[in-house]
Amino acid sequence: MIIVMRAGATRAEIDRVVERVESLRLRPHVIVGTERTVVAVVGDERDAAMSGFETLPGVASVMPILAPYKVASREVQAEPTVVRAGSLVVGGPAIGVIAGPCSVESGEQIVATARAVKAAGATALRGGAFKPRTSPYSFQGLKEQGLELLALARAETGLAVVTEVVAPEDVPLVARHADVLQVGARNMQNYRLLEAVGRCDVPVLLKRGPAATLEELLLAAEYVLDGGNRQVMLCERGIRTFETHTRFTLPLATVPWLHARTHLPVVVDPSHGTGHASLVGSMSAAAVAAGADGLIIEVHPDPKAATSDGGQTLDFAAFEKTMQVCRRVAAALDRSIG
Amino acid sequence: MIIVMRAGATRAEIDRVVERVESLRLRPHVIVGTERTVVAVVGDERDAAMSGFETLPGVASVMPILAPYKVASREVQAEPTVVRAGSLVVGGPAIGVIAGPCSVESGEQIVATARAVKAAGATALRGGAFKPRTSPYSFQGLKEQGLELLALARAETGLAVVTEVVAPEDVPLVARHADVLQVGARNMQNYRLLEAVGRCDVPVLLKRGPAATLEELLLAAEYVLDGGNRQVMLCERGIRTFETHTRFTLPLATVPWLHARTHLPVVVDPSHGTGHASLVGSMSAAAVAAGADGLIIEVHPDPKAATSDGGQTLDFAAFEKTMQVCRRVAAALDRSIG
Amino acid sequence: MIIVMRAGATRAEIDRVVERVESLRLRPHVIVGTERTVVAVVGDERDAAMSGFETLPGVASVMPILAPYKVASREVQAEPTVVRAGSLVVGGPAIGVIAGPCSVESGEQIVATARAVKAAGATALRGGAFKPRTSPYSFQGLKEQGLELLALARAETGLAVVTEVVAPEDVPLVARHADVLQVGARNMQNYRLLEAVGRCDVPVLLKRGPAATLEELLLAAEYVLDGGNRQVMLCERGIRTFETHTRFTLPLATVPWLHARTHLPVVVDPSHGTGHASLVGSMSAAAVAAGADGLIIEVHPDPKAATSDGGQTLDFAAFEKTMQVCRRVAAALDRSIG
Amino acid sequence: MIIVMRAGATRAEIDRVVERVESLRLRPHVIVGTERTVVAVVGDERDAAMSGFETLPGVASVMPILAPYKVASREVQAEPTVVRAGSLVVGGPAIGVIAGPCSVESGEQIVATARAVKAAGATALRGGAFKPRTSPYSFQGLKEQGLELLALARAETGLAVVTEVVAPEDVPLVARHADVLQVGARNMQNYRLLEAVGRCDVPVLLKRGPAATLEELLLAAEYVLDGGNRQVMLCERGIRTFETHTRFTLPLATVPWLHARTHLPVVVDPSHGTGHASLVGSMSAAAVAAGADGLIIEVHPDPKAATSDGGQTLDFAAFEKTMQVCRRVAAALDRSIG
Fold first, then answer.
1. B211/A240 Cβ within 8 A
2. How far is Cα A263 from Cα D38, in angstroms, rounded to an integer?
3. Which of A314, C117, C147, C298 could be stapled to C313 by a disulfide with Cβ–Cβ 3.0 to 4.6 Å?
4. Cα D291 to chain center, whole Å?
5. CA C190, CA A329: separation in Å to the nearest integer?
């Protein structure tokens, strides 16, 4: 940690900072600059309550140095984590593709979709049974019945099932039917939920919150890892910015940035990341080119009739075309899909 | 809802849109413009899955007209809701002030703070017992013991207690000790939690998520209201923007905008909204001038030693000074504090 | 400047950083931490091309310590700058109020407005003659004729004239008719224009760009100050965020933050900052409570007929009411209007 | 344009809106909904001053329907514009690559860079002679001498020269030496500059401002097109968001979105879009996969010694590797580089 003193900070003010650093059993280095004095603090700044320093007289600002996450860090584990959940493998040379409808609506719908996305090259099926919805008046999902339909589609196709869990008390139920537990963007900082999925042994897909920094995303992952569950995929699904022509802004630089700092694999969601079916194909290809380890894409037999998110959902033909392009881009980077 | 067709949309494409509108038992009005045709849809657009329209051929964009919230709306209830929780009244002519530490740390700390903030004019005590923290390695709160210390401080001072609840299963426990249940910014879209506080009869302070639109905030309130609990305060605590000199950006225009659209009272949190103790005084006064019905301010006997959020916490003297200024600004607007 | 090395940076990598620091005639301090080594650099980091450090092998990140602005800084001049331009004084105990239409449209319009805003307490008249417009098809202002009408309104009322200048070559012309040269938000980083207004002796109102950090605003001011013109007012007029219910997001914490770092006075523009006439009154009062030294407000005899920005413009009655409230809030803070 | 009335708007209020629409020679359609009345306005809403409607009593909101740009629109010109500037062709099947240093520093530097980037496959040379810099104390470019060095490098290699012009009065000078005039992000809404480049016959590279919507970008292009210059390339170079791990956030969905709405080609700048050399390679490949018509990349013989932007600049080896990957991705999409 670096504590920057104000220009003109007094000797007594500097001494008081030094004293407080020492009282936390850390080591201070005072560096007198031409315009400012800074106090460099040696020791594990994550162990102490550091936020008080900035209220000390004479202190201008406080800058942390250590990344606050540990287990998620490449410094702790150099080799990439490969997440395996039945037919889905994410983090190796092949790119996993999770596809399916926003919401499970019926057995017919989910089985037909599972067959179509499998035929096009998807390696897992997504589908929402418990749906967190912005409005209390929107369709909230088929819940347990939806889970059963997902399990049926898995039985029919062999595709691993990825579905969202929205509350700690649902974890055992969802874990019984699903191969991957998705923690949605709205719940990225629902710590009870993170702790609950951290205690079970089913792989987790953790979505970035739309206002979360990547450091906060890694700290959310840290909750899961710290609980004992090391099978975590991170998912970029877009952030909230001033742009209105897309539902969210999809920042693909997330992929190489995370790869340099964490061993966890990175999945991209171009459906939520754009909000418009017409942009999903291009952004899927771009995500693959950026180095994504996986994609999660919304697909429905008849998007205009979908109970949710129809505007960003591909039909079977558009998904198949998207997969063809992604396969070619992956090959250009010596990777494959599947 | 207005469905805007692309320039050059065919007659068949327009007919298909009209057909689908009718199939949803809504009434279409086709308006042929000089460059575009639009289809205005009459009926309750909130009842149907509308998102599919934008995937229909020939459709350029879809614009909703009705606000998606109902019970929270001024159109449903014209007179302001007054929330009453013991010593705290928010929504009437007097401005309620909730003050106290980020985290409850000890009986001595919380009782001393309660006495000091009461003397300065606060009408409720805040204090975190269950602390949602970005890092799993940070202090997570005293939990049930913290609740008991808050109850003790209430017994000593008569101040109503405001404290955060982070999970549905904790609602009964927290409701037993607290006068107001705070739903934190990270949990604004934790719908299970919203439903849980909606089912109990303790007033709720609902904080805006840092990436939430005001419409999403009102829809989150709608979950609580729809559950039967009508004692809801909305809280602006800052949004995430590109600004880095403050922890969040505090948009006070929220206050008059909400007042025009909802009968629920609006509280402002200048502590989280700025992140720096030195900015809290000015922004408290500004919030009062903007018409806020309440303030929530972090106060600690010794901010630099606080276990969390020390940098944005006032000491007793700074809080007293802030209250003096706020009282004068309130009086200038024919309001009062307390 | 602090150069943070990666965990596991080699001795050779550290040496190379040290060498380069020395080659720039700065002094390096190497601090070996428990997990990281940092190199603290002593000397004026603003004089050198520092951005290359982060590409050196083993370097994790580079953190500047010194604020990059100088002349604008409170460290260079402790007492506040008072800007004086005829009837307008900004930076002293009284709050200056600049009011008038977005665009000058006619002599009748501008003179009537000048009289009305003066009667209500404004101390300067605003009005656009050269209008930078987002679309080439929008009304671009009356140009020189507009300047002459502004001068006429000044002759009639004695109010100082504030008007925008959009190009270096126009500075002499505009300076001949105006008392304050406004540099608009779109031109905050038009350095030729900043240099041109820096070379003349007419006070400047410099508006913050909607994506500019406060540091960038101060550096833009530094261009003007560095040119020799010390009569600079900074203006917060809102930033671009994800919020859509207001035209921009108006962050009033700008006011106390700037006051702590610069001696230049701070003006707030609640018209552009909100984009809606119905929010201007509350946000004017809030700006005064936040400590603003001045306000700039759009007023028009008949907003619905205005050639630009009608939606955010007050009519005379609304402006008068706004001024009454602002006067009371100012008095509560021992300040006055005018 | 759609004018949405408040719930409970009176007949008289609706009549007044209708009257005003008619007074603007537009045609109103009144549609009475179940909860709201809306007035759909038929006619060219771009020709009138529409902003006043929202201040009329009873009006809740006003929604435009027509895109405000015309000449830039695909509706006006269906086939893509191909921009040709010597060795650089952008907008056809081949992807143009513009590479070179942030600033021209010396003849040796620029000629060596030109040779290296040409060998690696670049089709144009970039280099700043007039440098807009955030701080007045930073290196401001070699100016005219820089232009001459660029012309020298062109003579040596045959590469077209792309360089920034920052003021209208410099346009003739820069146009004499350069093949493409770059309008930088800070000047995207410097309308005098847009008009000046619109009047000359040298192709223009127009960069998106960091807070500009795509509609604003297209309107800025419209200024150039409207002036008579139809050779315009749009450039996405990143927007300002809350993300701090990258210098800007690079939203590649810009590419397919613009392609659907405008015939102008789209170039991506992964150097400014990320701010870190280590992210440029991945994001270049991603931009190609997203469908970009061109790339502009910062390359320098020795980035750590660059006078500006060293941290985001590739050395020759890194650029060559980036080009290899981009070529393979382009081929996967049946495109080529060059």
1. yes
2. 54
3. C298
4. 15
5. 41
Which stretches in chain C have pLDDT values below 50?
A: none
| Composition of chain B by helix, strand, coil, percent to 5 | 40, 20, 40
- According to DSSP, the β-strands at D94-100 and D266-268 are unpaired
Quote the tokens at residue A118: 């499998």
CB A134 within 8 A of CB B189: yes
Q: Kindly report the number of other CB atoms within 10 A of residue B336's CB atom.
A: 13
Query: Would you say B330 and C325 are in contact if contact means Cβ atoms under 8 Å apart?
Result: no
**Partner D contacted by B36 (CB < 8 A):** yes
Closest CA relative to residue C160, chosen from C269, C80, C83, C105:
C83
Low-confidence ranges of chain B (pLDDT < 50): none
pLDDT in tens, D139-195: 889 999 999 999 999 999 999 999 999 999 999 999 999 999 999 999 999 999 999
Looking at residue C46, what is its pLDDT? Answer: 63
> Who among B33, B42, B244 is closest to D42 (CB)?
B33
Interchain proximity A136–B226, CB inside 8 Å:
yes
Kindly tell me the burial class for residue A276, based on how many C-beta atoms sit within 10 Å of its own C-beta (0-12, 13-18, 19 or more): buried
Please tell me if residue C64 touches chain A, with a CB cutoff of 8 Å: no
Instruction: Specify the pLDDT at position D49.
Output: 55
Judging by DSSP bridges, how do beta strands D59-63 and D2-5 pair with one another?
antiparallel
**Which residues have C-beta within 8 Å of that of residue C188, sequence separation ≥ 6?**
C206, C207, C208, C209, C212, C216, C217, C220
Taking an 8 Å cut-off on Cβ atoms, the answer to whether C134 and D219 are in contact is yes
> ipTM, 2 decimals?
0.94
Q: What is the model's pLDDT at position B84?
A: 98
Q: Which of C245, C287, C288 sits opposite B257 (nearest CB)?
A: C245
Residue A191, pLDDT score: 94
pLDDT of residue D231: 98
Chains linked to D by 3 or more Cβ pairs within 8 Å: A, B, C
Indicate the average pLDDT of chain D: 93
Q: Is C241 helix (H, G, I), strand (E, B) or coil?
A: coil
Instruction: Please report how many Cα atoms fall inside a 13 Å half-sphere around the Cα of residue D285, on the Cβ side.
Output: 32
- DSSP letters for A93-133: SEEEEEEE-SB---HHHHHHHHHHHHHHT-SEEE-BSS---
What's the length of chain C?
Answer: 338
Report B:256-295 residues touching C (Cβ under 8 A). Answer: 256-257, 260, 273-274, 278-279, 281-283, 285-291
Q: D230 pLDDT exceeds 80?
A: yes
Which residue among A4, A38, A44 places its CB closest to the CB of C34? A44
